[in-house]
Amino acid sequence: MLFYRIENLKGEGPYINCCEMSLMKWLELYDVFSVGDNRWEEYMDRHPSPGGKDSRIKDCLSYRTNGEDFIFGFNNLNKLKQYFFLKEEIEYLSYFNFGIRVYDIQEKKDSYFVSKYQMIANKKLISPIEYMSLTEVFGEIA
After folding, report:
1. Are 120 and 60 in contact (CB under 8 A)?
2. Cα-flanking dihedrals φ and ψ of residue 52, to 5°?
3. Would you list the domain boundaries of the chain?
4. What are 83-118's pLDDT values in tens digits?
C-alpha cells in the first residue's frame, strides 16, 4: 500500500516542524479566516483533528498503538488535495520547501489505519519510494 505525506527535507510534517512560522500563524498573517469569510467552516470540515471527527485514527492512536510511532498522511493524492486546498496553505508549503514523499508500507498488523480524511502509518514500517514537488501535484504555485 502507498502512503502520501507532505513533508520537508528533514521528514517533518506541515504542522510540527522547525519552520520559523507555523502554518496556522501563516494563515492568520494573511487573514485567511477574517470575519465574514466562510472558508473557516470548510477548512475545519476538511481538517478534523485526530480527537474529533476522525475517531478511527483517534482510537488507534489512543488505545491500540504507541501513537509516537505513527505519522499522518493520505492513502491517495485526491485525499491529500482535498485536505490541503487553500491557496495560502500551498503557498506556505512551497515557501518552506515542502514536497510530497511517497512511501511503501509493509503490510503487517497495525502498520497503518485509513479513515475518511487521513491515514496514519507506523514510521518504522514505511520505506520512501518517490518524491514529488508540490507543482507536480497542485500545478503552478503563485
Report:
1. yes
2. -105, -120
3. 2-138
4. 998 888 999 999 999 999 999 999 887 788 888 888
